[in-house]
Amino acid sequence: MSAYTYFPGCSLRGTAREYDLSVRAVFGALGVSLNELDGWVCCGATSAHSTSRLLATSLAAANLAKAARQGNNVVAACASCYSRLLHGQHDLESDPALAAKVRAAGVQYEGNVAVLHVLDLLLDDVGLKAIEERVHGKLKGLTVACYYGCLITRPRKLIQKEDPEHPHRMDDVLRACGATCVEWAFANECCGGGLAMARPDVVAELSHRILADASAAGADLVAVACPMCQTNLEMRQADIRRTHGVNHNLPVVYFTQLLGVALGLGQESLGLNRLLINPMPRIRERLSPGAG
After folding, report:
1. Could you give the CA distance from residue 221 to residue 272 in angstroms, rounded to a whole number?
2. pLDDT digit string (tens) for 3-44?
3. Residue 165: CATH number of its domain
4. Number of helices (H) and strands (E), helices first, in the chain?
5. I want to staple 34 with a disulfide (CB 3.0 to 4.6 A). Which of 6, 64, 181, 249 is the partner?
6. Which pTM was predicted?
7. How far is the C-alpha of 211 from the C-alpha of 115, rounded, in Å?
């Protein structure tokens, strides 16, 4: 298997530390080498790209240039980081005037780095067969709603390995672990994203709809690949209880944490102890005898 340059990004070093822990633990167990990008900086998500296209593109270009010097393709776990690096690369290649401004700002990127998501590594490098052979169906009995959100399936012109209307790559990985993944209507609906501070009422309403549909589909928990989605869907459940009178009490975990459970990794090494809603009682309850 290959070695990759890993871009953790800001969220995975802070509020989404459990995602970073689970990514490193899972790929370590699978024998894939993730070498953290030396001197990485913010990808420009949210603040930069909403105020300055030049700044956002320059930040992405700076990280891509560092990855090129480190000699590997760059892989991200955070959906926002993945999206910003892809968009920055696309803008540099499609807009010569913008690329010239980025170079004038002192950032030199020659366009020889591929931007990957951790799902790409699992599906294209490790492979589903290898995952199946390693985990022996250890998640059998667990029913999961895989939530993709907005950024790892769209836009189609940049992300061609996933179906933007009927995404399946996260489902494929968890099914390889023995889990049952539900068919549901809100797998790629927006959770409210960065409106958490400006319009918490909108985020609570959108999150309520997503959680309600996951529950109606029979999911034991929701699996995500985005720190913002995880925060909105988990933290807003208290707001939903107050505003809608519904107690979802539905665990929201990173899909890499579930993969780590299937691989037999410890709860603390996967950051499961950092979640607000502990998924382990439900996971233990649902797993078939001998699965864990």
Report:
1. 13
2. 899 999 999 999 999 999 999 999 999 999 999 999 999 998
3. 3.40.50.11810
4. 13, 8
5. 6
6. 0.95
7. 31
